[in-house]
Amino acid sequence: MGGGLKVFYMYCHTTSVVDMVHITYVVMIYQLCERFEMLDTILLKHFTSGGNSAISPQRRQMERIRIIKFIGSQHDKLTEIMEMINRCYSLQVMVYIGVAFVYYILVFLAIYKYLGGHSEMDRLSFNLICTFYYAPITILVIYSGSLIARKGKAILKGLHDNINTCNDSDVAAELTYVSQQIAYQHPVATCGLFHFDWPLFYNIIAAIATYVTLLIQFERMK
Length: 222
Known about the structure:
The chain is mainly α. The chain has helices at 2-48, 57-115, 121-165, 169-184, 198-221. The chain is 86% helix and 0% strand. Helix 1 (2-48) runs parallel beside helix 3 (121-165).
């Protein structure tokens, strides 16, 4: 009994540590999303709304160029932070999603076996519990990854919109330079093999359907 409790304690401790790693990854991405949204708000305030109309045109031009350079430098820093976060946590997240993918396949196969009367309820219940355990964090990671990419693209879209409506050649040139810089380096949540975004979610569903179909065919051949 003591040995069983020790194993259970080690299992709970390990899973809690793994959960904290992934929750930390998601929280950090959400924090970066807020920073990117602030940059978008600054751009909207100084360009779309027209900025401060009480200052002279020359000073307004200098102020806008300063804001554009500030947005470009802060965007670079935030993108570098995202890359550091990926280097620290993306490998663990990739392994987690891989393990979750295996359990997703097993639970659908267990459901098929249970409906056919070839599997016990205990095995099906275990696979269902594992699936419900892995699924929420997997979806959170994918959602946060798609969110950070969308926030980065929103700033780029704002810069392009202001390029088309800007009448000042110097400001337009600075907007073009910063937009090219941002287009070259934009924030993504990735492990190096694939991005954590909604296309990954759809690929997981397609792969699950493929593997479950193959495994069901093998079961019928027995």
